[in-house]
Amino acid sequence: MNPTATATRRTLSTPPAPESSFPYNRGSLLSVLDLSIEGVSRVLRRATELEFMNPIRRNTILAKRRLALLFYESSTRTRTSFELAAKALGADTTLVSSLSSSIEKGESLKDTGLTLRALGAEGIILRHNSSGAAWLLEASTRLPVVNAGDGMHEHPTQALLDLRTILAHFDPETRTCQPERINRPAERVSRPMGPATTVGSDTLAGVTICIVGDILHSRVARSNMLLLPRLGARVLLCGPKELLPEQAAHSDPGIEIERDFDAALRQSQAVIMLRIQAERLAGLQLDLDEYKARYQLTGQRLAVHAPSALVMHPGPIIRGMEITAGVADGPQSAILEQVTNGVAIRMAVIERALTAGG
Amino acid sequence: MKVTAIAIRGGHLIDPAAGVDALKDILLKDGRVAEIAGPGKLKHAEGPHTEIESLDATGLVIAPGLIDIHVHLREPGQGYKETIATGTAAAAAGGFTAVAAMPNTIPVNDSPEITRWMQEAERGAAIRVFPIAAATRGSKGEAINDYSALKAAGAIAVTDDGHPILKDNIMRETLTGAARAGLSVIQHAEDTRLTQGASMNLGRVSFRLGLRGMPPEAESSLVERDIGLVAELREAHPHLHVAHTSTAAAVAAVRQARRNGLRVTCEVAPHHFLLTEEHVGLYNTHAKMNPPLRSAADRDAMIEAILDGVIDAIATDHAPHAQHEKEVEFEHAPNGITGLETALGLALKWLHGEWKMPLGRVLSLMSAQPAALLGLKGRGTLTVGSYADVVVFDPKAEWTYRATESKSKAKNTPFDGWTMQGRVQWTISEGHIAYANSEKGIAVAGSEGRAEQANHA
Ligand SMILES: [Zn+2]
Q1: Considering its fold, how many domains does chain A have in total?
Q2: Which residues contact B12 (CB under 8 A, 6 or more apart)?
């Protein structure tokens, strides 16, 4: 049309990206971004209060309130954690799993949500294999929805319990985590978290937390990447290109990629190991021996490069794959403590869900 | 009153193909343009034997009816999404007088029978429908169809839209066979081997949302492959038209092919020159289509390519879906958005209003150029003797698009609530009024007087 068109780049105004109207319900926790830093503090504080509260009194907080656990993926760990948390507060829970007949028959998530609401559910805990499912459910039902893991996207309560675990070992003087303070798994966590129950934008300044492995398919990684930098932490991502694309580092200036595991370990005060999600690899071929050689957390590697770092893992652990049994059970491991922290965090999140909206 | 002629008076005629940009009155008779004259100078608009309807176009633009060469009308087979009647009603409301209908119907339009069926009067089309037939049997990419038979039945091009032809030898056969039959080949350029399980553009947003992404190379590599084949088959003079280009690399390949003298054209959809992957927001399925919304750099490249003249046509890729189909998990939602009622309003607001593209060039991209591209003779221009396909619109009127008021069966649009510029007053298809705006009082500065007159329509 116009052969003389200019070759210079024009600066043009373009339509702005839309603003989010989520969450629709103030009680929802779809993403860790639904919590302000003050909101994170409230959850941490309340988790500790609830954990140490008289169980009989605690049992009256949500007495007879109705909570649905809608699980499209089997997950013993997360489901049990939410269930125990809800019951500890006195709530009635009902479990709807992907094996239930209506879902098997192809009922849509929206219709299932509306049915649960009509049955009297006041809130829904959703675990789903599709990214974004919690947003769809919340928009459809307007109920408080707690995202218990959506596809490869987010797992906000896991990030909160990871934070609680890190803070339980954090020494603000030295800016380090101190694994030796770990209570043995069999014991109760006896030390109420002190100074760190109130967090701010510099609480974790100077602290480096390394997330290792299958970042691409991990909702745990994404939620931690959205939470930890807001508290001042530096997040190092470590893994092979196939499981850790360059785009991962573009989400926040506090996030960097270090593909050399040993180098990453040397800089880190805490390390979160992830399993390879075989079910999401979708045809991707990985040389597992090479993977283990480069990214397995072994006792030797830990002793040489990060002898005082806290070792974490959201589970399930594949012993001998991403982590050796010795490290998983070793003195630097906080893995079972994470599980314990999960119940406390989920009590706080469930209470918030059913009482925040009013 | 049986109207056999329409006189449109007082308007500003913009006919880019004829180089007209002036106040003109126009007389339409027997489905054709009968006369064009200066204001008040129509000679043949009086007479005892003709009932003439007179339209007052004072303050309005008269232009060749818009032509959309990429729509999905869903018939046969998926009338719950859209029918030829509802889709063309929406098209008429958007100022279109002709649309080219993609063959991904159920069954696939790979036969002269379906091609003819789509054009039958019983379908109730408000405007002209030109079927585009499947390039291969069942759009499976294995065996090519009988192109001359399809052409004889009314097909104006061939494509396997949505199912790109990946095999080199089949694409070769398609290009040569279509060239022999005098048809264009339209390719939905996507190397589907690179897009398995993907539901949006590959990039930082797909990573953040935990969605599998389609790399831009999935589009550009197939465009480059196809251009290579067109070059190889140069002797046969094939015409390759790249559907809905969305990446800078694909447009660059088209630009280069044309420099090399190859007959390669391309279109771009309004959503690809306006929106980016950020508009997916939090899993808005009304921002899910294929090709997906791309990065800001790619979107900017689409704008540049339109302004620089590399793009040959604006086409909507109107892809209606039922509400319940889109109210599902993002990765399970079907691809596509509606576009017929918003294309002109968006093009005028952004291309013309914001980015200062001359009105005539915008209109050319939506009428003269697509008509030329697919060889639609007598359309895309308003010279005496051409089809009486006309759109009359108020170029200054701003209005808000409401999906609930759409004439399409489907409401799956990311542009609900958006401000549009340029209100269609009448759409006339082959001499018949296919759409008349009955809305009262489009109260916008500078067009108050006009809005009142419009109410007489
Ligand atoms: Zn297509």
Answers
A1: 2
A2: B21, B22, B23, B24, B57, B60, B61, B62
Expressed as residue numbers, the domain containing A240 is 200-333
Ordered per-residue pLDDT tens for chain A, 358 residues: 444 444 445 678 999 988 899 999 999 999 999 999 999 999 999 999 999 999 999 999 999 999 999 999 988 899 999 999 999 999 999 999 877 777 777 899 999 999 999 999 999 999 999 999 999 999 999 999 999 999 999 999 999 999 999 999 988 888 888 887 643 333 344 444 444 578 999 999 999 999 999 999 999 999 999 999 999 999 999 999 999 999 999 878 899 999 999 999 999 999 999 999 888 777 778 889 999 999 999 999 999 999 999 999 999 999 999 999 999 999 999 999 999 999 999 999 999 999 974 3
Q: What is the ipTM of this complex?
A: 0.92
| Least CB–CB distance from A248: residue in B207, B276, B283 | B207
In single-letter form, the type of residue at position A92 comes to: D
Distance CA B285, CA B99 (A): 25
The reply to whether residue A17 touches residue B282, judged by beta carbons under 8 angstroms, is: no
Tell me the Cα Rg of chain A.
21
User: In the A/B pair of chains, how many CB contacts fall below 8 A?
Assistant: 108
- Return d(Cα A318, Cα A37) in angstroms, integer: 33
Looking at beta carbons, which residues of chain A come within 8 Å of B350?
Answer: 15
CB distance A164 to A47 below 8 Å:
yes
CA of B213 to the centre of ligand 1 (A): 17
A342, A169, A195: which is closest to A269 by C-alpha? A169
Residues of B with CB under 8 A from a CB of A: 196-197, 203-204, 206-212, 274-276, 278-279, 281-284, 296, 299-300, 303-304, 307-309, 324, 327-332, 350, 354-355, 361, 364, 369, 418
Residues B276-281: contacts with CB under 8 Å, at least 24 apart: B276/A17, B277/B200, B277/B201, B277/B203, B277/B205, B277/B206, B278/A17, B278/B205, B279/A15, B279/A17, B279/A18, B279/B414, B280/B200, B280/B205, B280/B209, B280/B330, B281/A17, B281/A18, B281/A20
Is A213 found in the same domain as A144? no
Quick check: is A165 in a domain?
A: no
Tokens of B238: 């094939």
Whether A108 sits inside 8 A of B354 (CB atoms) is: no
**Which residues of B are known catalytic residues?**
317
Do A252 and A145 lie in one domain? The reply is no
Least CB-CB distance to A12: which of B279, B327, B354? B354
Q: Is A97 exposed, middle or buried (0-12, 13-18, 19+ CB in 10 A)?
A: middle
Query: Which amino acid makes up residue B326?
Result: K
Strand segments, DSSP code E, in B189-251 are 200-201, 213-214, 240-242
> Is the Cα dihedral B201, B206, B209, B210 positive or negative?
positive
Question: Three-state SS for A21?
Answer: coil
**What CATH number is attached to the domain comprising A222?**
3.40.50.1370
All domains in chain B, ordered by first residue: 3-62+390-394+422-454 (2.30.40.10), 65-373 (3.20.20.140)
Nearest-CA distance B210 → chain A (Å): 4
Its pTM stands at 0.92
- Are residues A211 and A327 located together in one domain of the fold? yes
Cα A69 from chain centroid (whole Å): 18
